[in-house]
Specification:
single chain, 252 residues, mainly alpha, 7 helices
């Protein structure tokens, strides 16, 4: 990258850091603070808090909790981003303003774009709730080998366990692919079709005076979606690598 592009990229990275700080619900500098934040966020019952405390004392418990907290935070950020995009698509985007797409009624395009963002936000919310259940269940334990199961039975148990370990990475990978696609659609539509709701009923001169500054305002939103799409792509690669590493353990 050139020096100018590096500065832009660093600025986007910095802004995204502030966004995460505001949209990621579970935070804490120490393990104790993180645990308190986790308990408060999910409003855990006394029994669930005991399970979490017991899990933390286990050998891999702390790492497992940190992993799930990162997962909750990631999906929570996506959820907020798609809710914000749904609002932007409703108020500030009109596909009919693009001459090639003028045949599409504005109401239908808005309904499609807003619904897509709301459905993805719902998916992210469901993933957050699923993280809670997975967290309380704790990490999957390795199956016990039996001399009576040698060798085929033990190998089957082992393979089943490893595939179960790799499944969350597969889910993460497919989710991030979907997120990337919707972020790109948001970026393109916001960049090329920004138009204030009902502004097409205004006189042409007044409409022009409104929509030009509107484009300047919505430009950062388009850039943010493009940046999130790039980040989602990086998450796909990361999840694919982690899943591959887990599946490599199938080899006995």
């Amino acid at each position: 990258m050139t020096s100018f592009l590096q500065k832009i990229w660093s600025f986007l990275h910095l802004v995204n850091g502030h966004w995460k700080a505001k949209t990621q619900p579970i935070r804490g500098k120490t393990d104790s603070d993180l645990l308190k934040s986790l308990r408060a966020y999910f409003d855990l019952s006394n029994n669930e808090r005991k399970k979490l405390s017991t899990l933390k004392k286990k050998k891999k418990g702390s790492n497992f909790i940190t992993q799930k907290v990162d997962e909750v935070n990631r999906y929570a950020s996506h959820r907020t981003a798609f809710l914000a995009n749904a609002l932007v698509q409703l108020l500030l985007v009109n596909l009919a303003s693009i001459s090639l797409l003028g045949f599409i009624p504005n109401i239908y395009s808005k309904l499609l774009l807003v619904s897509a963002n709301l459905l993805i936000a719902l998916l992210a919310w469901r993933r957050v709730r699923a993280c809670k259940q997975t967290l309380l269940q704790g990490p999957a334990t390795k199956p016990k080998w039996s001399i009576w199961g040698a060798f085929r039975g033990n190998r089957r148990k082992h393979n089943k366990h490893i595939k179960a370990q790799a499944k969350p990475y597969k889910t993460h990978m497919s989710d991030e692919r979907l997120f990337r696609m919707i972020y790109l659609i948001n970026a393109i539509t916001i960049f090329f079709a920004s138009q204030l709701l009902w502004s097409d009923h205004l006189p042409a001169l007044l409409r022009g005076l409104i929509n030009f500054p509107l484009f300047i305002i919505t430009l950062p939103l388009a850039i943010a979606n493009a940046y999130w799409a790039f980040g989602a792509n990086s998450q796909v690669v990361k999840a694919a690598t982690q899943r591959g590493n887990e599946l490599d353990k199938l080899k006995l």
